[in-house]
Specification:
Length: about 400
Amino acid sequence: MIKKKKKKLIIALTVAGMIVAGTSIYVVSNQKQQESNLVQDAPQVNKVSDLMSSSTSKGESYLTGKVAPNATSKLNADSAKGKINEVFVKVGDKVTKGQKLFSYSNPDGQIAMEEAETDRTKLQNKLNQLNESIATKRTQLTKKTDELTALTNKVNNATTEEKESLNQEKKSLEETVELGKNEIETAKSELSDAKLDLQKAERTQQLTNEKYGRSEIVSDVDGIIQKIDDTQINSTVSTGSQPESFMEIMDTSVLRVLGKVDEFQKGEIAVDQPVKLIDRKDQSKTWRGKIARVDATATEEKEESTISKYPFEVVMENGEEMPNIGNHVYIQPEKEENAKVSLPTDYIMNEKDKKFVWKVIKGQVVKQEVTLGKSNEEAKTIEVNAGLTKEDTIVFPTKLIKEGMKVPIHD
């Protein structure tokens, strides 16, 4: 009898414990469900500009390109200048415009330039002497002319007996004056010929110096030495042959980025459009540039390709720590600041052939009609041509959102 009572007591206690435990689980579970419902039912309030930034980053795709030099400057060995006898740089060196690169040795050319200089100097001296001679003769002529004028006055005032002697003296002086004039005219003719001869000599010297001169060759650009053909040093180029360039310099005064854009993205870039360039290995390194060229003709791709691609080119702005030539970078076209408002399509509602969104005005939800534009199916966004600005705040539409309800606004 006692054993039966103990057994009933144990069963009663067990059932009571289960009831208490079940009640606790229900209370905790119900509390969590209520908290979950509160979170889910909270209105999603967002500023239009924030939604635009978010949707843009989701639908954004980078172009890619390869960093290239502005151009490659090729220097050929000129046998007319002689043999290349000394090189002042090596492959990989950075050079600046005007820096010495290499020099020629040409004894025959040196002699030709010296002879041309000697000929020019002789003719210049002759010209100087003629000018001095003409100046001296003019001075002498002026003196004799003054003497003739004075003697003529004396003859006019002389007696008959004196005139005979004075006239003979006057005749001799007139002959001297006439001779002086003739000598000056002859000298002037010689001077004119000498000027022509000097001009010819100067032209000959110029051509000779262009042919044999400038024994030291300097760089015309800022860049990097890419190639030096050592086999052309101290060697003679045979007539009629066209060897490869002796030296090549990558012009790094301006860096360019070469890439290709497919037919779907081609409309997103245009000449003079600013772009952001991002290092593929270290995306904290960025540069700026502008689209310089977008080809209108697609390049030939592999036969199995079904997408056309168009070459384009970006000119980089010079700055510190520019990327190495040959590196690949991401290219992000920059959007205009006055770009149209665009929203995720989930925020747009339909009602009687009209489109509207839930807009927040002074903390309350109101129905705002909007006019829509183009849609971007990839990014799942649509342009809003009228009815909203970037500064407006809107609410994500759910069944719980009602016109006039109050919502919290976050700055």
